Amino acid sequence: DETHLPSKAKVSKPLPFWIYLLPLPLLVIIGLKLRKKKTLNIDYIPPPVWLPRDDVRIDVSGEGIVKISVDGKNVGSGENKYTYTSRPDIGEHEFVAEVLNEKGKVMEREKIVFFVLPFWRALAKIFEDVVEFCEKRTGRNMKDATVREILSALEVNTELREEILSFFEPNRYGDREDGSREDLIRFYRLCRKIIKKEVKTKVGVLKFTLRGVRNVD
Predict the structure, then answer these.
(1) 26 pLDDT higher than 90
(2) Which of 62, 148, 155, 193 is most buried, by the most CB atoms less than 10 A from its CB?
(3) Residues 104, 45 share a domain
(4) Within a domain: residue 99?
(5) 48-57, 80-89, 191-200: least confident range
(6) pLDDT at 27
(7) Does 213 fall in a domain?
């Protein structure tokens, strides 16, 4: 039973032997660093890809003065939180968030990358994760493969395959510009079903590079 044979046990992990050889001041510093918790949080609805007509919104929070810079330029700061909203130019953008203490010293720093792209290029950007996943899984170079060929190589079920292809079909003979941010979010979530892994909201977890995706057929 739970009294005589508990199903859970607390195990005390011993400290490494070298820790006892360090001088006391250094032990204090190490202890403080180990106890220091991360407070900086960057939050947005993935993917980190927006359309030119959309407002990019990224919420940042942390314990201290939150300072934001984009492409090397300071864009604002706030006490414990800051919401970045803007319509940057088309392209790749570097977003840096910092938490400062009362003396202005940087206590935490985190960087992400986001993109502002026309709808067709935004779809291709999001689909790159699927291309990379396919290459790792099959061991083949899929750089010149079509969307349909990639989905077939991954043996994606018919329903999911047709949903994804429906985004690309209208783009066969030219750019499609009538898509929305909601379309990008839906397409992104469909792609994540293929990769079958939990996605965090930090862009650092995701690898984005500009690689072309050919037509469906």
Answers:
(1) no
(2) 62
(3) yes
(4) yes
(5) 191-200
(6) 55
(7) no
